[in-house]
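Discrete fold record:
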Amino acid sequence: MERLDKFLCACGIGTRSQVKDILKTGVVTVDGKPERDGSRKIDPDTQEITCNGAPLRCRGTVVVMLNKPAGYVTATEDKNDQTVMELLPKAYAHWDLKPVGRLDKATEGLLLFTNDGDLLHRLISPKKEVPKRYYARHQGTATPEDVVAFTQGLVLGDGTRCLPAHLEIAGPGESYITVCEGKYHQVRRMMASRNLPVTYLERQKEGDLTLGDLPRGECRELTEGEIAALQEMAK
């Protein structure tokens, strides 16, 4: 059993405030009878709920990909800075999306959001080893010794141990880094530990997902196939 208003939000009818207004009009019915009380408990599996005569089906897992620009913090709210939530269209507000992991304020690129708490935690869990690939511009040029150090797993200056990672030398002052965990400022700290301080960082890939031609600052919903692939990878 669940509240009617929460069910309507999950079906994509609108935000909580919009659903409240819609209920007042009497266009929502439960088993053929108009229902205006959003707190009413319903069972969508055994009862028929309609809006303007159309049967409603609860929307399942939603995943949104954002190409994050610099200057936004990865948080649902912040007193001092703009958050990544402000970049999502208002039409997504009723999905109660949460960021999957974090990109720091200066880092750009691929950031996922989902309404599925279980999927979120599995995607960020080091145990699931979901790879995340970054492009970095940095001072100095990485060496084969740096590549080996990443493969062995770095120990940072404060004693933090990192899981084995992959460092690919792209050229003078450029590298690709793939990690399977998301410690605080991890990629920047790993590179700094090898005397390769990062000047620009972009996440380009998570699992098999890439930004493709998604413009910076824009977002899109993942397809059912893409979501299924994410769920399979994070099992």
About this structure: The radius of gyration is 22 Å. Residues 61-125+212-235 form a domain with the Alpha-Beta Plaits fold (CATH 3.30.70.580). The chain has three domains: 2-55, 61-125+212-235, 131-206.
